Every structure is written in structure tokens, then in C-alpha cells.
UniProtKB/TrEMBL annotation:
Subcellular location as annotated: Secreted, Cell wall
Organism: Glycine max
Annotated GO MF terms: pectinesterase activity
Domain Pectinesterase catalytic: 2-287
Protein name (database record): pectinesterase
EC nos: 3.1.1.11
Lineage, highest ranks first: Eukaryota, Viridiplantae, Streptophyta, Embryophyta, Tracheophyta
Pathway where this protein functions: Glycan metabolism; pectin degradation; 2-dehydro-3-deoxy-D-gluconate from pectin: step 1/5
Length: 298
């Protein structure tokens, strides 16, 4: 167990120096506890550092902040490339556009996740455009908060988001600009990835679509989710794939709240039957091997 305390009362005063102290190709779980406070640094778990549990003192108590922008790959405040990673009770913010300021809006990623078998519990992600790059691998987000306005949950991850708060702050885009919550990147019809939101809560200001396809076979399901009145009646946009909407799987099932009315949605909204929905909206969508059992017990 490694303690990080920015005031100097731990083993390290920065999170990155604690991660750097873990041996490459480490095989045993290493706990890194980050005491409350705001850590102004970029943090990266490279692919040779698996089996790390990074744990703060609460989503509202331990913050990691940086302010890079422009390049999605270079801007993230937090990057994790390793398999088998657990992150708990901590928030990552890209301060370039969050809080809103005079900066023009640019891609400014708060977290980029490219490892397989990753579990996030009680984690906050704060940005405006491209907040959470759910890039690749199987991921479980439980009781997390994701805030942004433009394509702010994007990528090719195979992910279940359960009991999460989606904070869509479209009002920060300025008058007349409509946001997008998701931009999912599934590229081929047989790819296993997609974003499933289960039992989440969509709140915020301004107005937003639920998503648009970043790639041609994008797949997103909102299930049993409370949706506030900020959603555009059409719900979704085809972006570069107009004319090929039949390849896209955008679905809504069993949601509630004023934004959940699907009567004015795009005609190509996918109608999934309940057995397909129950296959997607369960942990077996991301785990048929039992890895999640191990990670959620750490
Ligand atoms: C939208 O909500 C966010 C989060 O609560 C807040 O910081 C922001 O000021 C709001 N924007 C406007 C224009 O009201």
C-alpha cells in the first residue's frame, strides 16, 4: 500500500510518482491511496503497470486537475492503458473549459481509458468537449459522474454504466448550440463494443441529443434511466452516416422522466426486444469470465 499526500505526510506527494514506483509488469494488486485535496498534475498508468487500485477519499474530496486541450490523445488529465485497473472515489477534471471560461471550446479530455478489465467506482469526470474517452476494452462504471456538453462520452469501449449521473451542461456551449452526450465508435457489425447506461440519471442545463455515431455501427442503449427535460425530441443525429442509419443501434428502453418520451424520436431508433435488452443491460455484456467479481471486491 502506497499513500499519496500532497501535503507531504505520505510516501509520495504526487500521484504520478506513486505510479512510477510500481514495478513494470507487476503481478500483484498494489493499492495507491490518495488523500483528499486537489492534485494539479497529469496522471498516466502505462500499459506495463497492471493491477493497480487507485483510490481517493471521495468523488467530492480528491481531485486531479490539468488543462491541456486540442489533441484528444495528448490532452487527458488521466490516462490508463493497463489491463486490470480499479479506480475509486476520485475526480478527474480538465480545467481548460471546466469550469466554463473565456477559452474557445476545444477537445479537452478529462480521462482516456484504453485498458481491458477496468472498474470505476464513485469516480467523477469533468470537462466540456470529449470529457471521457472510453476508448477500448471492457469497463464497468458504477456510481460515477460524467459531466460535459459535446460528445462527452465517446470511443470504442465495451462498457456498462450503472447508477451513474450524466451531467449534460449544454447551456455552457452558448445560445443555440445543442450538445451530444455520446459519440460511440463501433466500426464493424460483429464488434462487441457499445455503451450501455443502466439505472442512470441524466440531468443538466441547455439542451442535448442523446448521441451521434462516431463510427458507422455505433451502439448505445439507455435503459431504466431517469431523463430530465433537456433532451431534444428527435433524441439522436446520424452525423456522417445519414442514409446508413440501419447500421446504427441507438435504443431506449424502460426509461422515465420528461426527456424519456420517444414519440418524436428519429424513425431509425432501434426497437430492441426485452431479451436483447436484458442481454445488454447486465454485467455479462462486459464479463463472461468472472473478472468483475475480483475487481469489485478490491
Ligand atoms: C450549467 O450547469 C453547470 C453545472 O451545474 C454550471 O456550472 C453552469 O454554470 C450551468 N450553465 C449555465 C449557463 O447556467
Amino acid at each position: 500500500t502506497i499513500i499519496v499526500d500532497r501535503l507531504g505526510n505520505g510516501h509520495f506527494s504526487t500521484i504520478q510518482s506513486a505510479i512510477d514506483s510500481v514495478a513494470s509488469y507487476n503481478k500483484n494488486w498494489v493499492y495507491i491511496y490518495v488523500m483528499a485535496g486537489t492534485y494539479r498534475e497529469k496522471v498516466k498508468i502505462t500499459s506495463d503497470k497492471p493491477f493497480i487500485v487507485l483510490k481517493g477519499e471521495g468523488q467530492k474530496n480528491t481531485f486531479v486537475e490539468w488543462h491541456d486541450h486540442d489533441s484528444s490523445a495528448e490532452s487527458p488529465t488521466f490516462t490508463t492503458m493497463a489491463d486490470n485497473v480499479v479506480v475509486k472515489s476520485i475526480s478527474f477534471r480538465n480545467t481548460y473549459n471546466n469550469n466554463r471560461n473565456a477559452n474557445s471550446m476545444e477537445a479537452a479530455v478529462a480521462a482516456m481509458i484504453f485498458g481491458d478489465r477496468s472498474y470505476f467506482y464513485d469516480v467523477g469526470f469533468f470537462g466540456l468537449q470529449d470529457t471521457l474517452w472510453d476508448g477500448q476494452g471492457r469497463h464497468y462504471f458504477k456510481s460515477c459522474t460524467i459531466q460535459g456538453a459535446m460528445d462527452f462520452i465517446f470511443g470504442t469501449g465495451q462498457s456498462l454504466y450503472e447508477d451513474c449521473t450524466i451531467s449534460a451542461i449544454g447551456a455552457n456551449l452558448g445560445p443555440g448550440i445543442i450538445g451530444f452526450i455520446t459519440a460511440q465508435g463501433r466500426t464493424n457489425p460483429n464488434d462487441a463494443n457499445g455503451f450501455v447506461f443502466k439505472h442512470c440519471n441524466i440531468v443538466g442545463n441547455g439542451t442535448t441529443y442523446l448521441g451521434r455515431p462516431w463510427r458507422g455501427y455505433a451502439r448505445v442503449l439507455f435503459y431504466d434511466t431517469k431523463i430530465s427535460n433537456i433532451i431534444q425530441p428527435l433524441g439522436w443525429q446520424p452525423w456522417d452516416f445519414a442514409g446508413h442509419e440501419d447500421h446504427i443501434t441507438f435504443a431506449e428502453y424502460g426509461n422515465s422522466g420528461p426527456g424519456s418520451d420517444t414519440s418524436k424520436r428519429v424513425s431509425w431508433l432501434k426497437k430492441l426486444d426485452s431479451s436483447t435488452v436484458s442481454k445488454l443491460a447486465t454485467t455479462s455484456f462486459i464479463d463472461t469470465e468472472g473478472w468483475l467479481n475480483t475487481l469489485t471486491q478490491l
